[in-house]
Structure to design on (272 residues):
């Protein structure tokens, strides 16, 4: 039976997470769903992000997924709790939906020596305060500073992440965030699109600052989760299959997705 692990994002960003997951857990089947037709999510209301995300999760369930990863911080911040608490109990009590914020906040404090960390994210993630709330649970002494970067996702989605135009917006937000505390020694890219801007961020931030992408952290956490949940793990099919779905143009997706995923991609259109 085909019971892939579902990986969801508003667009291409989740592919930076899928890439790391597939690297660590190649044996499983995966179906990736990018809601490119409705991206970006980061500027949308709580209700809209919740409705869009739920619709995509339901579709992944219809495709046989027992486990779905929201590889999108905005969806994890604005939709995950509702889906877990309000929808799953009636919709699919034996299935699981996980996000990317919890695994990241469980480890972030171990990277900082000064105890001051900076979070770069979409406006939606920043205003949800999910990072502040979750980090407080694991590292109550950590000082956390946030910066919303509303232009970064459009730059990445439109293939402008390496252009000179991107320099201005990267510099602007790094300066603003580091201006909030001179002690910040760790920057978290708390949006799965941002790893595409990593080179520019590295060039802009001082060399003593550690820059964290989430892909590897989320993949490690999934390895651990599957070990701790054998009842779910045994239900995930293992034929090494990959399926890519996009709600927008497949030609655009295939061209762009390769850059995020690091391998060629042939997607299938999904009309929601
Ligand atoms: N990649 C998503 C995230 O991690 C956000 C992209 C968007 O704004 O749609 O937050």
């Amino acid at each position: 039976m085909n019971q892939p692990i579902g990986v969801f994002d508003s667009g291409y960003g989740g592919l930076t997470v899928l890439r790391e997951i597939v690297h660590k857990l190649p044996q499983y089947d995966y179906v990736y769903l990018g809601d490119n037709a409705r991206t970006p999510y980061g500027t949308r209301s709580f209700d809209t992000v919740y409705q869009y995300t739920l619709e995509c999760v339901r579709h992944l369930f219809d495709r046989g997924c027992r486990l779905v990863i929201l590889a999108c911080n905005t969806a994890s911040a604005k939709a995950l709790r509702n889906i877990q608490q309000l929808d799953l109990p009636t919709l699919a009590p034996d299935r699981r939906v996980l996000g990317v914020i919890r695994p990241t906040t469980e480890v972030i404090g171990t990277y900082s020596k000064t105890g001051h960390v900076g979070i770069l994210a979409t406006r939606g993630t920043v205003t949800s305060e999910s990072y502040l709330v979750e980090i407080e649970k694991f590292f109550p002494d950590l000082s956390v500073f946030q910066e919303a970067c509303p232009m970064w996702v459009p730059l990445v989605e439109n293939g402008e992440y390496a252009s000179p135009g991107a320099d201005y917006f990267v510099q602007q937000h790094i300066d603003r965030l580091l201006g909030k505390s001179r002690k910040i020694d760790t920057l978290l890219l708390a949006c799965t699109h941002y790893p595409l801007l990593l080179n520019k961020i590295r060039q802009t931030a001082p060399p003593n600052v550690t820059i964290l992408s989430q892909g590897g952290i989320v993949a490690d956490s999934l390895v651990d989760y599957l070990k701790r949940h054998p009842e779910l793990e045994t239900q995930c099919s293992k034929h090494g299959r990959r399926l890519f779905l996009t709600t927008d143009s497949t030609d655009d997706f295939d061209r762009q997705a390769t850059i995020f995923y690091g391998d060629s991609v042939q997607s299938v259109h999904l009309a929601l």
